[in-house]
Amino acid sequence: MTPLGAITHVNYSDPDGQIYCCLRNKVVKLDEEQQTRFCQGCKMFGGNAEGKGVECVWEDMRSVSDPYVVTDPILEFIKNQTRIVGVNYMTTMTAYFGG
Ligand code: SF4
Questions:
Q1: Which of its termini does the chain have fewer beta carbons within 10 Å around, N or C?
Q2: Which helix (H) or strand (E) element contains residue 28?
Q3: Prediction pTM value
């Protein structure tokens, strides 16, 4: 069952065959190993983007469209790190100032 608020991320492979993998939080080659070792058993797996990549369904706190198309995995990786750093920063600030 698709969780409430889950967004379908359509990750098209870039010219080097790479995609952003949410599970591993890194840019990876969408090769046989990635597909069998990770995607096959991944709860976020939502399809193979008609053979052009991988669809990953996960709850995204960013304000993005659904489906959300990703063609630049490196940029997508950076955007996701910004989000995580932002959350940690806020948590640190809250703890520090006792908010
Ligand atoms: S289905 Fe899971 S393992 Fe495969 S790319 Fe998406 S998040 Fe990563």
A1: N
A2: strand 26-29
A3: 0.82
CA of 97 relative to ligand 1 center, distance in Å: 37
Least confident of 42-46, 59-63, 95-99: 95-99
Q: Give burial (CB, 10 Å; 0-12/13-18/19+) of 32.
A: exposed
Contact 63, 53 (CB under 8 A): no
Spans of all domains in the chain: 6-97
pLDDT greater than 70 at residue 57: yes
- Residue among 9, 56, 68, 70 whose CB has most ligand 1 atoms within 8 A, to mutate: 56
- For residue 38, pLDDT over 90 is answered with yes
